[in-house]
Each structure stands twice: as C-alpha cells, then as structure tokens.
From TrEMBL, chain A:
Its EC number is 4.2.1.20. InterPro entries: Trp_synth_b_CS, Trp_synth_beta, Trp_synth_beta/beta-like, TrpB-like_PALP, TrpB-like_PALP_sf. Belongs to the TrpB family. This is Tryptophan synthase beta chain. The lineage of its organism: Bacteria, Bacillati, Actinomycetota, Actinomycetes, Micrococcales. It catalyses: (1S,2R)-1-C-(indol-3-yl)glycerol 3-phosphate + L-serine = D-glyceraldehyde 3-phosphate + L-tryptophan + H2O. The keyword tRNA processing does not apply. Keywords: Amino-acid biosynthesis, Aromatic amino acid biosynthesis, Lyase, Pyridoxal phosphate, Tryptophan biosynthesis. The beta subunit is responsible for the synthesis of L-tryptophan from indole and L-serine. Tetramer of two alpha and two beta chains.
UniProtKB/TrEMBL annotation, chain B:
Pathway: Amino-acid biosynthesis; L-tryptophan biosynthesis; L-tryptophan from chorismate: step 5/5. Its EC number is 4.2.1.20. Keywords: Amino-acid biosynthesis, Aromatic amino acid biosynthesis, Lyase, Tryptophan biosynthesis. This is Tryptophan synthase alpha chain. The active site is at E54, D65. It is an enzyme of class 4 (lyase). GO terms for cellular component: cytosol. It comes from the Bacteria. The alpha subunit is responsible for the aldol cleavage of indoleglycerol phosphate to indole and glyceraldehyde 3-phosphate. It catalyses: (1S,2R)-1-C-(indol-3-yl)glycerol 3-phosphate + L-serine = D-glyceraldehyde 3-phosphate + L-tryptophan + H2O. It comes from Arthrobacter crystallopoietes BAB-32.
Length: 441, 266
C-alpha cells in the first residue's frame, strides 16, 4: 500500500483486506469502494443520475425477466457462449503449457464490448431514457454502442477524439451506418480521455433523457460494478468450459488491461479459486522506461479521474499524463478501481507488455492458429507466453500447466497497423499512408 | 462544523448585504494569461466591485467547464503553470485588496499535493477556502479535517437535480456559502439565468443555508439584479475570462464595474 485510506470512516480497506486474508469471497463486490478505490468523485449535478442508475441496476439484477432478457440476447444476438479453443501450436511457444483461448473475438461486433452495451442499453430503456452517449478511442466501444442503440431503438451519440476520427475513418463510417452520430472532440489532447470529458459534459446537460453508456469497468459508482456484472459471463463460461475440457481449473488466467473490462469479467470467474493465478497485462508502449506507455498500475499512483479513485498516470501536479500504446483500446491513463484493489491485495498481478512484444504475439497467433487477434488481446497473448515459460520451468510434463487467455477481440480492425508494422505494404499504397498514422481498418 | 472558525467568504457576503447589495463573486483562472496578469486582473475585479474572488486551478480534465474557460486554462498550462503558483497568486491578491479569495479546483491536484499540505499553504497565503466542483461531501473526509484544522471555507455545489436529502447533507457540510448551479450543464455565458436557479436557492435556504450564491450562465448586470431578488450572491466566470482574453486587465475592471451596477438591492 502506498497511500493512506481516503475514507477512513468507512474502514473499507482494512475490513475487506482482512476479510480477504481470512478467505472471504472477492466475488460480486458491490462498490462503491474496492478497498481504497472507487467511489464517486463527480459533480453533484450527476449524482442523482448515478443514484437512479444504481437503483435501476439493483432491481434489474434480481428481476428474472431482466436476467432472461440479457441471457436471450447473449444467446440469440451476440452468439454466446463464446468458444474456448485450445491453441495447440501456439502453446509450443509458451514453454509447452496448454493454452486455451476464450474467444470473445467471435461475438457479434467482434469483441467482448457487446456484453456490456446490451446490458446497459436495456437499463437505459428501463429508466425511460431515449438517448445514449458513449466515448470511444479506436471505435470498438462506439461501434458496439451504435449496434445496441440500433437494436433497441435508441438515439446514439458517440464522442471521439478529433485525431481518432481522422485516423479511424472506417469505424466512424461503421457507426454512422448503424445510425449513430459521431462527434469529433477537439478539446484537450483530443484522445480517449478527452472524449470521456466531452461525454460527461453532454451527460450533465442532457441527463433528463440520456444515459451515459460507459465502455469500461471504471468511472463513478455504480459503473465499475455494473460493467463487470455484464462481463462476468466471460469468466463464468470459461470456468465451466475449462472444467469440461480438462477436468480441472487452470493455473493462470491472462487478460489485457486498458480500463480493464474484459479482464475483470474473466478474472471474476476465478477470484475465489486461490490456485488460479490472475495476470493483467498493461500497455508498455515503447517501453516503460521511455515514458511513452499506458502502464497505469505498474507506474501510476492513486488519484481521481473520471469519477473514481484508482491508479492514474499523473505528473507531480496531479495533471493527467497522456498515455501511449500501439493499441488504441489500451491507450488510457486510468484503470478500473477494482483492478487497483486486486493489485494492492496481490490477488492479481499486473505487468507491462511493449508494443513490440504484443506485435510478435499477434503474428505468432496468426501463423500458428489461423486467428487474427486484436492488438489489445495480443498483449494478453504475449503475457501468456511469458507466464507459460515461467510456470513450466522444471516441470517434467509442461502439459500439466493450463493457461486461459482472454482473446477479447478480433484483429480485422488492426490489419493496416499490423501490415505497416511488419512492412507488408507497398510504400506508395494508400493503406501504407493510413497504417503509418495508426489507422485500424 | 467548527463554530469558532470565522469564514472569510461569509464575512465578505455579509458586508455586501449590510451595504444593501447582492454579493458579487468573480472567477478567473490562475496563470491566465500569465501569473502576474492573473493577480492584476483579480485585483481589478475586486477594486471594481467583486466581494469574493475565485481563482481556478487549470486542470487537464475539466469536465465541468465550457469552451471559454477550457481554452484559458489550456493556455495557462501550455505557458507552464504549476499548481503551487496558485498560492503566490492568492497571496498577491490578498496583499492588495480586501476581497475574500477562494480557490476553485478539481480534486486531483489537491490530492496529489496532499490535502493537509495544500490546505496549510492556502491558509498561509491568506486564502478563504476551496470551491470543489468534483468533490461531494460523501468523499470529503480528509477535506473536512484539513479545512477545520486551517480554518478554511468549504464551498460545495448543489444543482437542480439535487435531492432533498442531499441538499440537507450538503448545506450542513458547507462553510462560507453554498454554490447553487443554475442549470444542468457546464460553465458558459447564457442569454438568461435558468428558472431552476430560483428553486435551487429556495431549497438550499429551506435546508438551512444562510448564504447561497448562484453560478453558471451569469454574465450581465441584469442577471445579477435578478439573482439578487432571491439569493445572497451572484457568480460570474466565463464573461470575465472572455473580457480578460479580449481586453486585458482593463476589460475585467470595466465588466466588474458594470456587473456591480446590478448588485444594488431595491
């Protein structure tokens, strides 16, 4: 622990940490606090909306109709349960450990994001809201939000950094095809964090008819617990599938961390299984020593941003530092508060993976398994290679080690970036120009 | 609440009331266009009629601010503004005029310096307290302790969406005055002051608030006059920042004098 309790009167830190050490469950943590983290660092104007959301969510969770509605959409629209695929040829590079991929890339819209947007869009309808707003970096959450809005008949406005709208022209077109309005954000650094700022400004102005469909398990209470709830299906399925396929629990579960929604979803299924190591891989960018990275837990320190207390990349004045990653989905200077708590407890380990390590793992999965992963998910794959080599050290049979990787998204969107990275493009081609600017087709 | 603490901003508002005036509260960003000019502009604001000065700390993620204030604070940061300079600015203003000087800040810069350390230095500089747009009393345990220790005002915000329970809790938590947000939205000059403002102020008074000031969208003498019919003070920000940007320190003085003309109570 590197900080004193922010809310000493709640005693949240010592109570929950002591309970954890005594073997109490870490599952279904309701918020608002996860140890020292979480809470509501928000303008008073938005507190009533957060209260309304919390109340609606609490009622929905215990309403069989709502649960059935979510399950039905997951099955008949998203394509759940997603597969658990053993990656046998890839495994050879992970010290010979058995590596299984949780295939969120096979969901409708190509990533885990659909789990959360469908759930939240249903909650928006329950609250009588007719309009949803969302932030997006690369466009994945924006596309998923636009999809849910189209399906459920809601108006949708997506905030996106102006720089990103130019680089991600095809994702902007996707959202517009789905009926959403995309608003380029020219404020601040014109990145994901500024898109969130602008979405919050919209929300405070239009909260009477608008739900802010936050895309990750961060932000003010109840968002971290709520977003996790809709992603818990990843871990629940994975646990059941690994038991069915191997007859036992895995030794490790690996996931990438931006805000941390796919990671918290898959970790949740194994939180109370102490034999299962949980590993979160942050974006190390060009290397944590270069300062150009997004390794929030590894190098950040606790602070408040976008409504929650959590690890944060900030300077000596508490100003947010811009993050850098080849993966737009991990390029965020904050992280969900539950991850900060799990890091402090030591229940999950968080390590950086550089752009270069992620891209090597990207190519390896393409060539060994015939699966093109998202660059985000490639950070988890690169981490799994390291974990596999470590856990198999000195084992007579490396196949005794079992690892699950959250393959959170597919890489179709990343083809231009990858082609540029690996020098596959004719230098004069339009794709080369696009790729040089980080475009993800 | 520590009843022995003499609130500087409450005293300034009470002095205006005793003189038959609505208190005028003016906001300017620290370090805009530079540190010395922000001191000079604040002094001009006070000399031309402001009873309370708010100095805003430029922050990388100002979710409650509209474009004019964002542009000014971005410029201040680009010019190299450092948070600790706010204490020099506060000291520079309080040494030259009698206005109560509050600092308005998003919470992370305070948390980063340490709430106790920040509070101690603010009190030493002669500051009156803090206005905290993204800190609600629910999360303010450390700030309660430090503000009591150093005798600083705690100005929390209430909004049209604030429930009766939260209104009671926030009024009780505040010292100096309660900041009534006139409209659901961000800072910025508007044509008229929203009707909701009157209801928010009534609710705050009913919950026991002795001093309520109205902000967001207030930019003209006629707005100040209207607010004065139901509240103790009117808060002007964006219009002053725009005046500073366009016409410099003189522009701020001129606008302050005009706003002051709206403070006379009938």
């Amino acid at each position: 622990m590197t900080q004193s309790p922010q809310t000493p009167e709640t005693g949240a830190t010592s109570d929950t940490a002591d309970a954890f050490l005594a073997g109490a469950s870490l599952r279904h943590a309701p918020g608002p606090y996860f140890g020292n983290y979480g809470g509501r660092w928000m303008p008073e104007s938005l507190i009533a909306a957060l209260d309304e959301l919390e109340d609606t969510f609490d009622k929905a969770k215990s309403d069989p109709d709502f649960i059935a509605q979510v399950a039905n959409l997951n099955r008949t629209y998203s394509g759940r349960p997603s597969l658990l695929t053993e990656a046998k040829r890839f495994s050879e590079h992970a010290g010979g450990a058995r590596v299984f991929l949780k295939r969120e890339d096979l969901n409708h819209t190509g990533s885990h994001k659909i789990n959360n947007v469908l759930g939240q869009a249903l909650l928006a309808k329950r609250m009588g809201k007719t309009r949803i707003i969302a932030e997006t970096g690369a466009g994945q959450h924006g596309v998923a939000s636009a999809t849910a809005a189209a399906l459920l008949g809601l108006e949708c406005v997506v905030y996106m950094g102006a720089e990103d709208t130019r680089r991600q022209a095809l994702n902007v077109a996707r959202m517009e095809l789905l009926g959403a309005t995309v608003v380029p954000v020219t404020a601040g650094s014109q990145t994901l964090k500024d898109a969130i700022n602008e979405a919050l400004r919209d929300w405070v102005t239009n909260v009477h008819n608008t739900h802010y469909l936050l895309g990750t398990a961060a932000g003010a209470h109840p968002f971290p617990a709520l977003v996790r709830y809709f992603h818990e299906v990843i871990g629940d399925e994975a646990r059941e599938q690994i038991l069915e396929q191997t007859g036992r629990l895995p030794d490790a579960v690996c996931a990438c961390i931006g805000g941390g929604s796919n990671a918290i979803g898959i970790f949740h299924g194994f939180l109370d299984d102490p034999s299962v190591g949980l590993y979160g891989f942050e974006a190390g960018g060009e290397g944590v020593e270069t300062g150009r990275h997004a390794a929030t837990i590894t190098l950040g320190r606790p602070g408040v941003l976008h409504g929650a207390r959590s690890y944060l990349m900030q300077d000596e004045d508490g100003q947010t530092i811009e993050s850098h990653s080849i993966s737009a989905g991990l390029d965020y200077p904050g992280v969900g508060p539950e991850h900060s708590y799990l890091a402090d407890l030591g229940r999950a380990k968080y390590e950086p993976i550089t752009d270069s390590e992620a891209m090597d793992a990207f190519r390896l999965l393409c060539r060994t398994e015939g699966i093109i992963p998202a660059i985000e998910s490639s950070h988890a794959l690169a981490g799994a290679l390291k974990v596999g080599r470590k856990l198999t050290e000195g084992k007579s049979d490396p196949q005794d080690v079992i690892i699950i990787v959250s393959l959170s998204g597919r890489g179709d969107k990343d083809v231009a970036t990858a082609a540029e990275w690996f020098g596959l493009l004719d230098k004069k081609s339009p794709e080369s120009e696009i790729g040089a600017e980080g475009e993800q087709l | 609440m520590n009843s022995a603490i003499q609130s500087k901003s409450a005293a300034a508002i009470d002095r205006a009331a005793a003189a038959g005036r609505t208190a005028l509260v003016g906001y300017l960003p620290a370090g805009y266009p530079d540190v010395q000019a922000s001191i000079d502009a604040a002094v001009a604001l006070a000399e031309n009629g402001a009873d309370v000065i708010e100095i805003g700390i430029p922050y990388s993620d100002p979710v409650m601010d509209g474009q004019v204030i964002q542009a000014a604070t971005v410029q201040s940061l680009a010019n190299g503004f450092r948070v600790a300079q706010v204490f020099d600015i506060v000291a520079g203003i309080t040494s030259r005029c009698d206005a109560a000087v509050l600092v308005m800040t998003y919470w992370n810069p305070v948390m980063r310096m340490g709430v106790d350390e920040f509070s101690r230095r603010l009190a030493e500089a002669g500051g009156a307290g803090l206005i905290t747009p993204d800190l609600i009393p629910d999360e303010a345990a450390e700030w309660f302790e430090a503000s009591d220790k150093y005798g600083l005002d705690r100005v929390f915000l209430v909004a049209p969406s604030t429930s009766p329970e939260r209104m009671a809790m926030t009024v009780k938590a505040s010292r100096g005055f309660v900041y009534a947000v006139s409209i659901m939205g961000v800072t910025g000059a508007r044509e008229s002051v929203n009707d909701a403002a009157h209801r928010v102020v009534e609710a705050a008074h009913a919950a026991g608030a002795e001093r309520v000031c109205v902000g967001l969208g207030v930019s003209r003498a006629e707005h100040v006059r209207e607010i004065g019919s139901y509240a103790e003070g009117a808060i002007v920000g964006t219009a002053l920042v725009a005046a500073l940007g366009q016409d410099g320190v003189d522009g701020v003085g001129k606008l302050a004098a005009e706003l002051r003309s709206g403070t006379a109570k009938n």
